[in-house]
């Protein structure tokens, strides 16, 4: 078995390699580290650390996890938070991280990366922090009130955190 450190990087527009639960776990860890860095750099946003509803793989990567045929260009990871009306979340904020070497390879335009690009984004939802997270995200997608909600609703959403819901397909609805 080839280790992550010695695996040759394959370059392709879209990877057709299976997206696995282990990949989802890696994405959850990447998202966690990104949030910690965001909150450390912006202490006023740390209130959102206790308002995380769920973190999900979205768009084409999520579709590929479900159908195995879409292919993976990049990995879009969204963390959904219960909104704190006292603290605005920077909705345009996008973190970018290298997934690292894996069987998913690397996109040819992502120079300087060893693996697929991971885009890390966040959205606040006008819900109570105790709201069922899947219900909250589904309502957000169904309402399609924002450009982001409309775009995310076109493809798929798969939970990567919390761990007990890892791999749960929440969009499209079954």
What does this structure look like?
The protein is α+β, with helices and mostly antiparallel strands. It has four helices and six strands. The chain has a six-stranded mixed beta sheet. A hairpin with a 7-residue loop joins β5 and β6. α3 packs across α4. The longest helix is centred in the first third of the chain and has 21 residues. The termini are far apart. 36% of the residues are buried.
Write the layout of secondary structure elements.
Blueprint: H1 21-41, E1 52-58, H2 59-67, E2 75-82, E3 95-98, E4 117-125, H3 133-143, H4 147-153, E5 157-161, E6 169-171
Parallel strand pairs: 2-4
Antiparallel strand pairs: 1-2, 1-5, 3-4, 5-6
Radius of gyration: 16 Å
Count every beta strand, where a strand is a DSSP E run of 2 or more residues: 6
The N- to C-terminal Cα distance equals 36 Å
**How would you describe the shape?**
globular
């Amino acid at each position: 078995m080839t280790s992550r450190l010695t695996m040759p990087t394959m370059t392709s527009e879209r990877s057709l390699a299976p997206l696995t639960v282990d990949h989802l776990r890696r994405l959850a860890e990447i998202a966690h580290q990104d949030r910690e860095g965001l909150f450390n750099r912006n202490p006023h946003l740390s209130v959102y650390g206790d308002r995380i509803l769920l973190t999900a793989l979205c768009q084409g990567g999520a579709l590929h996890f479900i159908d195995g045929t879409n292919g993976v260009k990049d990995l879009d990871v969204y963390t959904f938070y219960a909104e704190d009306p006292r603290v605005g979340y920077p909705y345009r904020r996008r973190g970018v991280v290298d997934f690292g070497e894996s069987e998913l390879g690397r996109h040819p335009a992502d120079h300087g990366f060893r693996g697929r690009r991971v885009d890390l984004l966040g959205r606040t939802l006008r819900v109570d922090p105790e709201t069922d997270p899947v219900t909250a995200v589904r309502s957000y997608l169904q309402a399609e009130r924002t450009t982001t909600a409309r775009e995310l609703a076109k493809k798929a959403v798969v939970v990567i955190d919390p761990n007990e819901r890892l791999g749960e397909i929440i969009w499209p609805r079954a």
